[in-house]
Design a protein that fits this description.
This protein has 664 residues and is an alpha/beta fold. It is built from 24 helices and 18 strands. The strands form four sheets. Strands 9-8-10-11-13-12 form a six-stranded parallel sheet, sandwiched between helices. A five-stranded parallel sheet has the order 1-2-3-7-6, with helices on both faces. Strands 14-16-15-17-18 form a five-stranded mixed sheet. Helix 7 (166-178) packs across helix 15. The longest helix is centred in the middle third of the chain and has 31 residues, at 293-323. The active site is at residue 411. Pfam families: Transket_pyr, Transketolase_C_1, Transketolase_N. It catalyses: D-sedoheptulose 7-phosphate + D-glyceraldehyde 3-phosphate = aldehydo-D-ribose 5-phosphate + D-xylulose 5-phosphate. Residues 100-121 are annotated as: Disordered. Residues 354-525 form the Transketolase-like pyrimidine-binding domain.
């Protein structure tokens, strides 16, 4: 690197520092320290290595960049502005303000160039693993001799906090096992967290930790451009291992009194300190949001180069598609992910009872050939979750053409990786575990809901009917907890036919995560010749049966999942005009218009009983003050499932008694 190059990079990095300081100071809120400490690495990466184009943010073969430490968002926004993305100086001035495109932590879909929502530490690392995995899988499908449609890297910056969070262990361990050689993790090692020096709580040998995962580990002085450049070039060399670059930095670099201290981590530097910092960096202390012309030119040259590279890829892709129309059709199908007509593909159920987890497995394998972009796996529970796609191959180190993941016993890591797979584009991921372990998934599910990532979860063993494994494995509060999360679609199908419709709904949903809660125990396949069609699931709730549909019901029994057949049994044995409503999804039912909701649950009919093998929390919104709920008021227990049903009162006699009490 020439002296001129170093000077140019220094000016670019210092410009990023000043912009980040100005953003935080203008908002009187934010985290200037990490932004200032990481600015040198950021400038070197974006000006010399990262393959992105600000005018083609949907370029399929762009590098993916993830700022896992999302509290340093001011640095990312400043960089996006300089790199030619649609982020203006006014956007920077409005940092952290209501309605701004520059929120306190990066949010996918709000700011051009933000690949994934970050903030909860460690999740960006896991999402980066998912993006790198998607790249390898799509390369295996679409690249061939003389044709390279997919060939890009995933760059992730992280800090001490990211690596302290357990999700980083789960995700990085799997990345090493899979040999994701195009994943590069830039570790901003500044030795400072909110409470002070990291050594008060951290004694890890990070280098040895990552080497034990099967990673290649490099290091550099994060403020020496020659050293940074050397490390980045090494990181780009082909490898069968992911790469960690330990960048030794000083938090708050450039601040005369706060650099290297925790005081600059999560609070503005203050007007006086900002002035002194700018003076020390050679900037006018009385000016804010200033970009020297030389810095604009430097970034503009890089942007022009990247635009040429994008155009070249476009020409090559167009030529490849012209030579092979089938390739183009497959590429577009992976991009657009159309939901095919599944009617002729679905299995016939007959009248033999079957668990909804088993029905789900049959549906998955029946539709898999028609949805080649659907990929998934389980947290070491595929035989129990029934998520395995038979005959379609496993994803493993050096073998990425398959469609089955083995996430290992890593629910939290799995969730973050699924988010990355979904955000990368080209694949639609699903992941499975026991419903009770959705608590391990929950933080990543929440982020998926925040950013509208269309991840599908297969959550089996959905009630105390797990039986002998006992209360540790029997979900009680998980259903209401999941329903409390905005933009999460809950689907708890009553039988095999509803399960098939649930998969169609899940595949069609593009704007958020969908969860299928499935039974371990066998359930009757409801006779749809005498009952309403299962397609009613798509509206969240529907009238399954009523003795006299033309008359006003005397009472309404509402149920989901395995309790629907119980409600039906009680209603059909009752001489009164009882309506049975199957309510597999509160989320979808809430989205229906008022007329439909009143049609299913007429306001005039106040005698209502809900039954669900979960905490009754929340059911009051549907049963009202005169209603009753048969639910789980405490924990489950260990014993045969049939005995537990009697023990907890999920019997026709108990439900009939509640109905009579309600009607009394």
């Amino acid at each position: 690197m020439s002296k001129l190059d170093s000077k140019a990079l220094r000016l670019a990095a210092d410009t990023l520092r000043c912009l980040a300081m100005d953003e935080v100071q203008a908002a009187n809120s934010g985290h200037p320290g990490v932004a200032m400490g990481l600015a040198d690495v950021m400038a070197a990466l974006w000006l010399g290595h990262l393959k992105v184009c600000g005018t083609a943010t949907d370029w399929a073969d762009r590098d993916r960049f993830v700022l896992s430490g999302g509290h340093a968002s001011s640095l990312l926004y400043a960089t996006l502005h300089l790199a030619g993305f649609d982020v203006s100086l006014d956007d920077l001035r409005n940092f952290r303000q209501l309605g701004a495109r520059t929120p306190g932590h990066p949010e996918r879909g709000m700011t051009p160039g933000v690949e994934t929502t970050t903030g909860p530490l460690g999740q960006g690392v896991a999402a980066g693993v998912g993006m790198a995995l998607a790249e390898r899988m799509l390369a295996a499908r679409f690249n061939a001799e003389g044709r390279t449609l997919v060939d890009h890297r995933t760059w992730v910056t992280c800090g001490d906090g990211d690596l302290e969070e357990g999700i980083s262990h789960e995700a990085c361990s799997l990345a090493g096992a899979l040999g994701l050689g195009k994943l590069i993790l830039l570790y901003d090692s500044n030795g400072i967290t909110i409470e002070g020096a990291t050594d008060i709580a951290l004694a890890d040998d990070t280098k040895r930790r990552f080497e034990s995962y099967g990673w290649r580990v490099l290091s550099c002085d994060g403020h020496d451009f020659e050293d940074i450049e050397k490390a980045l070039r090494k990181a780009e060399k082909p490898s069968e291992k992911p790469t960690l670059v330990i960048c030794r930095t000083v938090i708050g670099k450039g601040s005369p009194h706060k650099a290297g201290t925790a005081s600059c981590h999560g609070a503005p530097l203050g007007a006086d300190e900002v002035r002194l910092a700018k003076q020390g960096l050679g900037f006018d202390p009385d000016q804010a949001f200033v970009v020297p012309e030389g810095v604009r030119e430097l970034f503009a040259k890089r942007a022009a180069k990247m635009r040429r590279q994008w155009k070249k890829w476009e020409r090559e892709a167009k030529a490849a598609f012209a030579a092979d129309p089938a390739l183009q059709a497959a590429w577009e199908a992976h991009r657009d992910q159309p939901v095919p007509a599944l009617d002729g593909l679905l299995p016939a159920w007959g009248d033999k009872p079957i668990s909804t987890r088993a029905a789900s497995g049959k549906v998955l394998n029946a539709i898999a050939p028609a949805v080649p972009w659907l990929v998934g796996g389980s947290a070491d529970l595929a035989p129990s979750n029934m998520t395995y796609l038979n005959g379609l191959g496993d994803v493993a180190k050096g073998a990425f053409a398959g469609r089955n993941f083995h996430f290992g016993i890593r629910e939290l890591g799995m969730g973050g990786i699924l988010n990355g797979l979904a955000n990368h584009g080209g694949l639609r991921p699903y992941g499975g575990t026991f419903f009770v372990f959705s608590d391990y998934v929950r933080p990543t599910l929440r982020v998926a809901a925040l950013m509208g990532a269309p991840v599908i979860y297969v959550l089996t063993h959905d009630s105390f009917h797990v039986g002998e494994d006992g209360p540790t494995h029997e979900p009680i509060e998980q259903l209401p907890a999941l329903r409390a999360m905005p933009e999460v679609c809950d689907l708890r199908p009553a039988d095999a036919t509803e399960t098939a419709v649930a998969w169609q709904v899940a595949l069609a949903r593009r704007d958020g995560p969908t969860c299928l809660m499935l039974s371990r125990q066998n359930l009757p396949v409801l006779d749809r010749t005498a009952l309403a069609p299962a397609e009613g699931l798509a509206k969240g709730a529907y009238v399954l049966w009523q003795r006299d549909p033309a008359a006003t019901p005397d009472a309404i029994l509402i149920a989901s999942g395995s309790e629907v057949s119980l409600a039906l049994q009680v209603a059909q044995a009752d001489a009164r005009n009882i309506r049975v409503v199957s309510m597999p999804s509160w989320f979808l039912f809430a989205k229906q218009d008022r007329a439909y909701r009143d049609e299913v649950l007429p306001p005039a009919v106040t005698k209502r009983v809900a039954v669900e093998a979960a905490s009754p929390f929340g059911w009051e919104r549907f049963v009202g003050p005169e209603g009753r709920v048969l639910g789980m008021e405490g924990w489950g227990a260990s014993g045969p499932a049939g005995k537990l049903a009697e023990h907890f009162g999920f019997t026709p006699a108990r439900l009939a008694a509640l109905l009579n009490d309600c009607l009394a």
